[in-house]
Design a protein that fits this description.
MetI-like_sf; 2 domains; mainly alpha; transmembrane helix
Length: about 150
């Protein structure tokens, strides 16, 4: 019986491997990934990498300004997030919430905010309010808010 089970397991593994290879080959043809496209992409990648090295630091004031702006975004997002977290935490506590459904709704909202990656929040806020520090502040605020 053990020998039959071992041969059955080997056959199952071979079938799965065969199907994976067939799916891989089909995907290559479906996506039109051909060797000449891969070689061209390698040349483009080299061009991109050689354009990055060595980095040009012609205007260090702009780099310092951008670093300072990033720090300001982080501080503002954290500050606003903590303020709103404290308010929502009062509603999340069952003994402080006016009704138990509000407590569960706030906890569910916090769980949802934590479940969505930060990059997705940032992209959504960029679409909503445009580029600049504002979407970063809003995304960071929401991330902090989810940590109640």
């Amino acid at each position: 019986m053990k020998k039959f089970q071992d041969s059955k397991d080997k056959m199952t593994k071979r079938i799965i491997l065969f199907l994976a290879i067939v799916l891989f080959v089909y995907s290559i043809f479906q996506l039109e990934i051909m060797p000449d496209r891969i070689l061209k992409s390698w040349e483009r990648s080299q061009h991109l990498l050689f354009g990055m090295i060595p980095p040009t630091l012609d205007e260090p004031i702009d780099i310092a300004g951008a670093a300072l702006e990033s720090l300001q975004v982080a501080v503002m997002g954290t500050l606003f997030g903590v303020i709103f977290s404290v308010i929502l935490a009062c509603f999340a506590a069952r003994n402080l919430a006016p009704h138990w459904t509000i407590s569960y709704a706030v906890k569910g909202f916090a769980a949802f905010v934590r479940a969505v990656p930060a990059l997705i929040w940032a992209i959504l806020f960029i679409i909503a309010v445009g580029l600049g520090p504002t979407p970063g502040i809003l995304a960071w605020q929401l991330i902090v808010l989810g940590c109640l």
